[in-house]
Every structure is written in structure tokens, then in C-alpha cells.
């Protein structure tokens, strides 16, 4: 029988999240940026992955290098935001200077202040970096293999190319969700609810016509409602969409790729014939998760960019989408994301009920089989 593996504390306790920060997020691949953030030597971005400040820099050979964004003198963050650092990385505090390869090049007043210092042992600390489909991933632990994580995706890639200039990225949507990141993740890989919670928005498919495939730690979803052909959108959505004329993305018209890519642990990609959305989860505390989503569409579908203010729950004061700002019942919004967040927040509230327990899970790769698969993956780290 398919069963829940993680205890409820995994979803509610701050200690669990602290352990996840240390033993899971500090050893796995998180999205840090896009290859389009880099074009010249010295271009850099920064990201924080589970308390690890990370800087990714384009070196003089055109390769991306990732470092812990910590000066080896007294640990100041070297770089801020994104930009171009020039030929060296200079700490603003006492001006220790590093090459783009991370080696400590120079420090002021060396002969008086550090007469015996050997620069060799004071290079910036390496982190891991890898590129897939125009997305830059980073791993605070440099000994983890990017290839091992990403190579099982071979053959399952979506055709969208976010570096293609005919696509434009909309503004970032930030959802503030009152739930543990795993509650959101598990909802995303639960194929059993699609026909019920989302009856009026996604309209299925039923579990037998859903398919979740494992690619190493990553999971890819397909609808098989149309003669078993692996499809990236539910049939119901395709029928609704055919009533509007929406510009398709070059190469993405035909089925054969997935509709949801759960890149363990925190990156979620949803390709469709008309768009590509890349989202990253940011666990804030045990019961709060930010979801940062950005969508690419063809240039001709320009109106898309105005959509943020129309999203249910948009709060103009914070710029975020929050359930406290919903003005109608989630099931009346016609927005499946709102329906999902509604259920995730309900689940999170239930988790603290004294009588909370999980019954049997629905069997089948298109039902709830992926929940214990995901939970097992987490267990291996903790
Ligand atoms: S902390 Fe960076 S130079 Fe002192
Ligand atoms: Fe859902």
C-alpha cells in the first residue's frame, strides 16, 4: 500500500526546516538565475540558498564559476545583487581582492598587517554551478555532481528555449503561501486531485490517464488522455484554449513533452504550447513559503504582462499574492493556482490539529504514488 512516510513534524516544526537547510538545501541544486544574466567577463549574480550566500561569476574564459559570497578575511558578503565586477572581486570592507577564479590576489597593507600570510589557502570557497535549458542552478556543496542530477532528464526535455529573443519574460509573480514547502510540492505531484479540486479549471485527467515519471530525483507529469500520447496539458484545457487564439511558441506546438517538471527540491517548471513558467520555492519558515514565478510568452502575446494585478489575492502594498487578499472564494476564481494554494493552506492548518492523521494514499503513478517517492528522496538527506 502506498503510505505517508514523513511525520507531521516534517511539515510544521522549525527544527525540521533547520535540518533541511543544513542537510538538504545545502547539498542540492537550486535555481540561481538565467544564462541571460551573463554575457561578458565579470558579469555576476548573487543568490541565497538556505542561508548560503552564493555568487556566480563569468570568468575570463567565459565559464560560470560559483563561490560562497563570503570574504575570506572576516566573512563580509563580497558582491551584491547582480552586475559586472570587472576583472576582480573586491571586498568593500578592507578591499581584499580576488581574481574571477576565486584566488586571493591582493590585500592592502600586507607587509605591516599580515607579514606571514600565505594567500594560497585563502581563495574564495567554491560552490557548484550547472546550466540546463537556460537556467543556472547552484549548489552550496561543490562536491555534488550536477550531471548526476540532471542527466536522467535526457529525453524528457521541453522544447522551449528561453534564450530565444522571440520570447519575452513577464514580470515576476510572488505568491506568499501559508504552508510548508513540502505541502506545496506534494500537492503539485498529486495526480489524484486534478479531476476534483480542479474540476472547473483543469478538468482532470482522471488518475488512470495521468502519468508521473521519475527521472532520478526529478519528476515529470504527462496527460495521456489523447490515445495514450504523452501530452503537456489536460484535454479540458486544450479545448478551452482552442476558443481563444493564443500565440504558440515555436517548437512547442506538438505533444511529447511534459506539462509539469518538479526539479527536486525547489524548482518547478510548467511548459505549455503558449508559455513556459519557471517557479522557485523559497521556504521562509516551517509554515510559510514564497513561490517566485516568471512566465515566458511570444512577443505577440504582449497583454500577458499586465496580468499581475488581476491575479486573485494581489496585494498592491506588498506586491505579493496572498490569501488574505482574496476577494472571492478560491473555487469561484477560475484559477487553478488559487485552488491549489487554498487547499495547501487548509492542509497546513489541519497538520496542527491534535487528531490529524494521514490515511492510505491513492495508488498509481497518476494518483499519489509520487508522494512517498518524494518523501523517500527527502529521507535520504535527513
Ligand atoms: S572582510 Fe573582506 S576585506 Fe575584510
Ligand atoms: Fe493542483
Task: Explain how this protein is built.
This protein has 2 domains: 30-143, Rieske Iron-sulfur Protein, CATH 2.102.10.10; 150-381, Naphthalene 1,2-dioxygenase Alpha Subunit, Chain A, domain 1 (Alpha-Beta Complex), CATH 3.90.380. The chain is 18% helix and 29% strand. The chain has 8 helices and 21 strands. The chain has helices at residues 9-12, 14-25, 110-113, 146-150, 181-188, 235-241, 336-351, 370-381, and strands at residues 30-34, 43-49, 52-58, 64-68, 82-84, 88-90, 97-99, 104-106, 126-132, 135-139, 167-169, 173-177, 210-215, 218-226, 229-231, 260-263, 267-271, 275-285, 288-298, 314-315, 320-322. A hairpin with a 2-residue loop joins strand 14 and strand 15. The model has no long low-confidence stretch (mean pLDDT 95). FE2/S2 (inorganic) cluster is lined by residues 71, 73-74, 76, 91, 93-96.
Amino acid at each position: 500500500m502506498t503510505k505517508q512516510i514523513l511525520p507531521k513534524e516534517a511539515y510544521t516544526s522549525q527544527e525540521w526546516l533547520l535540518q533541511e537547510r543544513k542537510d538538504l538545501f545545502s547539498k542540492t541544486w537550486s535555481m540561481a538565475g538565467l544564462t541571460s544574466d551573463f554575457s561578458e567577463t565579470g558579469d555576476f549574480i548573487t543568490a541565497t540558498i538556505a542561508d548560503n550566500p552564493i555568487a556566480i561569476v563569468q570568468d575570463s574564459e567565459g565559464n560560470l564559476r560559483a563561490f560562497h559570497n563570503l570574504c575570506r578575511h572576516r566573512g563580509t558578503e563580497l558582491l551584491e545583487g547582480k552586475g559586472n565586477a570587472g576583472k576582480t572581486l573586491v571586498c568593500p570592507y578592507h578591499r581584499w581582492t580576488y581574481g574571477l577564479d576565486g584566488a586571493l590576489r591582493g590585500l592592502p597593507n600586507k607587509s605591516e598587517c599580515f607579514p606571514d600570510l600565505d594567500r594560497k589557502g585563502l581563495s574564495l570557497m567554491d560552490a557548484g554551478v550547472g546550466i540546463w535549458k537556460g537556467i543556472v542552478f547552484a549548489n552550496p556543496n561543490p562536491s555534488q555532481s550536477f550531471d548526476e542530477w540532471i542527466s536522467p532528464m535526457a529525453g524528457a526535455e521541453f522544447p522551449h528555449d528561453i534564450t530565444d529573443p522571440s520570447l519575452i519574460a513577464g514580470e515576476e509573480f510572488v505568491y506568499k503561501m501559508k504552508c510548508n514547502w513540502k505541502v506545496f510540492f506534494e500537492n503539485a505531484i498529486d495526480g489524484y486531485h486534478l479531476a476534483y479540486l480542479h474540476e472547473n479549471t483543469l478538468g482532470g485527467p482522471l488518475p488512470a490517464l495521468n502519468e508521473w515519471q521519475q527521472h532520478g530525483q526529478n519528476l515529470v507529469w504527462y496527460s495521456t488522455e489523447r490515445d495514450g500520447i504523452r501530452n503537456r496539458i489536460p484535454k479540458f484545457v486544450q479545448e478551452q484554449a482552442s476558443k481563444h487564439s493564443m500565440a504558440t511558441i515555436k517548437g512547442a506546438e506538438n505533444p511529447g513533452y511534459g506539462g509539469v517538471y518538479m526539479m527536486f527540491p525547489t524548482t518547478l517548471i510548467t511548459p505549455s504550447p503558449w508559455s513556459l513558467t519557471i517557479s522557485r520555492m523559497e521556504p521562509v519558515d516551517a509554515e510559510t513559503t514564497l513561490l517566485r514565478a516568471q512566465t515566458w510568452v511570444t512577443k505577440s502575446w504582449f497583454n500577458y504582462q499586465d496580468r499581475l494585478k488581476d491575479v486573485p489575492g494581489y496585494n498592491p502594498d506588498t506586491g505579493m499574492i496572498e490569501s488574505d487578499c482574496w476577494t472571492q472564494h478560491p473555487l469561484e476564481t477560475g484559477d487553478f493556482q488559487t485552488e491549489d494554494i487554498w487547499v495547501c493552506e487548509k492542509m497546513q492548518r489541519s497538520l496542527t490539529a491534535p487528531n490529524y492523521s494521514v490515511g492510505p494514499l491513492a495508488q498509481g503513478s497518476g494518483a499519489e504514488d509520487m508522494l512517498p517517492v518524494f518523501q523517500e528522496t527527502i529521507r535520504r538527506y535527513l
